[in-house]
Write a structure and sequence with these properties.
By secondary structure, the chain is of the alpha+beta class. It folds into 2 domains: 1-16 and 93-137, no CATH class; 19-92. Helices cover 55% and strands 26% of the residues. It contains 3 helices and 4 strands, in the order βααβαββ. A 4-stranded mixed beta sheet has the order 2-1-3-4. Helix 1 (18-54) packs antiparallel against helix 2. The chain is elongated. It starts with a strand and ends with a strand. The model has no long low-confidence stretch (mean pLDDT 90).
Length: 137
């Protein structure tokens, strides 16, 4: 009987080098700056929007203000999390492994295979953009 190919998640881990650490910090700093731009843009738009609404419908103005404040708070928390990640990136040890995410891979399943073993535990280890190891559970 023929097997079947199924998708599975494959973890990607990066061996930390000085170059990787700097790239990671740059990505995070760009994300923090973009989040701050969104906060600043929301502040400017909310002042303009609220000044227009307050004169016509105070109830609607209060509702809009609460929604804007909730979104601003969410963006502020996101920015703080990114800043925490930047601090952590500074502390990454050269040669250590850093989880970079997951990708989708295929695995062939046949009768008698251990399903859970086949679907879990696979990792790709990368250093300087090159695969240096593939780990199976």
């Amino acid at each position: 009987m023929a097997g079947v190919s199924v998708r599975r998640s494959v973890g990607v881990r990066v061996i930390v080098t000085e170059e990787f650490r700097e790239e990671l910090k740059n990505e995070l700093q760009q994300a923090a700056a973009e989040t701050q731009r969104r906060i600043d843009q929301m502040d400017a738009q909310s002042r303009h929007l609220l000044s227009g609404i307050q004169g016509t419908d105070l109830t609607q103005a209060m509702q809009v203000r609460r929604q804007l404040e909730a979104e601003r708070q969410r963006q502020t928390v996101l920015k703080q999390e990114i800043e925490r990640q930047i601090e952590e990136a500074d502390k990454l040890e050269i040669g250590s492994e850093y989880p970079r995410g997951t990708i989708e891979g295929m695995v062939e399943l046949n009768v008698g295979d251990d399903l859970f073993k086949q679907l879990s535990g696979s990792e790709i280890i990368v250093k300087d953009g090159k695969v240096v190891e593939v780990r199976e559970a």
